[in-house]
Amino acid sequence: EIKDIVAREVIDSRGNPTVEVEVITKGKGYGSAIVPSGASTGTHEALELRDKEQRFGGKGVLMAVENVNSIIKPEIIGYDARMQREIDNIMIELDGTPNKSKLGANAILAVSLAVAKAAASTAKIPLYKYLGGFNSFVMPVPMMNVINGGKHAGNDLDLQEFMIMPVGALSISEAVRMGSEVYHVLKKVIEEKYGKNAINVGDEGGFAPPLKTSREALDLLTESVKKAGYECGEDIVFALDAAASEFYKDGYYHVEGKKLNREELLNYYKALVEEYPIVSIEDPFHEEDFEGFTIITKELDIQIVGDDIFVTNVERLRKGIEMKAGNALLLKVNQIGTLSEAIDAANLAFRNGYGVIVSHRSGETEDTTIADLAVALNSGQIKTGAPARGERTAKYNQLIRIEQELGITKYAGKKFRCPF
Ligand code: PGA
Ligand code: ZN
After folding, report:
1. What is the Cα–Cα distance from 47 to 76, expressed in whole angstroms?
2. Which of 82, 169, 191, 390 is most enclosed, with most CB atoms within 10 A?
3. How far is CA 115 from CA 67, 88, 93, 187, 245, in A?
4. Quick one: which of 234, 229, 192 has its CA closest to 209?
5. Which residues, judged by CB distance below 6 Å to any ligand atom, belong to the binding site of ligand 1?
């Protein structure tokens, strides 16, 4: 039974304020959660409530904190913390808007996640087991964003994320080691080619060298994987997040100094997939172009991931499924605002043969909920940045802990999209 709820304003990895909530139960359970925040956000995401006053450059979250303390808390106290769906529904009704703009998705999500953790803690079981049961044993393949571009970096790369996936590992701890080894070789390779100013990192811990083209980035990855002693395309494969809404303006995609239409951009991706071992592309087209997603899913035999287009929303995902737009869902709990709704989206994806990638945001914190969620869902994939910077490594370290605790696990490896 929930005894107390405490909310406060803390800061995220970009130094921006965000909401932390603690939930305490009568059975001596305790759960706390901090919500993350995106930079290249989808238009249809649930609303992050910001104060718009002077403090924190207009980004304060005191209103969201106050909504937890004075509106949500009195309605939730006394409930059994295991009643996740009821509690989430109460908050959805209290808010009453389609995008959680009255109370703020940041207020609602912080409570939703902290309630789940408090329930797990009361029952004295780890979060992944509380959420997933005894059938949760798949360790996800990490998509490690080692070269940052787009809105996450101060360089000219149009595509946002250049990721490595250690599919040839046998465990998550080995995958983290392989990723970390490549990351350090990459640092050396970048320094030799572009000088020491080029090894500064972007928002997600990846390097942000002064590159202009995707090929330059992919060549750096290829060289680093080989120099680290791994077989490119076998041990380690590549994934991209284009985040195309960010370079779509006036009906064209602005890439590498050119104005491309949908077909030309498709051909650009096709050429990259032919040249490099790219197994996954996220948001290849802008967030309203379901048709473009359908075409690329049909024409390229790889994983096509919907992030800004689906925004972890079952209605938008359902439309995507009907149109065969994409074949994987990027799952971001703060895009929808409650744990129950995020799990609904994951289940809808699984039922329809879509892959699920549990994901961080570019603005993160020490909160590790998504590591547990990835294991709970047997998602087979997690996207949580480079193997560097505390807010990213917190998730990798949590996965390593879970793997050790479980003992017998199955690393998704090459079957990352459908681990079963
Ligand atoms: P965001 O980026 O958190 O800034 O939205 C992550 C992504 O696009 O996947
Ligand atoms: Zn994305």
Report:
1. 21
2. 169
3. 16, 9, 17, 41, 34
4. 192
5. 38-41, 241, 243, 307, 359, 361-362
- Which ligand 1 atom sits nearest the alpha carbon of residue 243? 8
CA–CA gap between residue 170 and residue 167 (Å, rounded) = 8
Pick from 220, 215, 211: nearest CA to 189: 220
Residue partners of 211: CB distance under 8 A and separation at least 6: 147, 149, 155, 156, 157, 217, 220
362 is in an annotated binding site: yes
Structure tokens at 39: 């930079």
- Residue of 282, 283, 285 lying closest to 262 (CA atoms): 285
**pTM of model > 0.90:** yes
What ipTM goes with this model? 0.99
pLDDT along the chain (420 residues), means of 10: 98 98 97 97 98 96 98 98 98 98 98 98 98 96 97 94 98 98 98 96 96 97 98 98 98 97 98 98 98 98 98 98 98 98 98 98 98 98 98 98 97 96
Residues with a known catalytic role: 204, 332
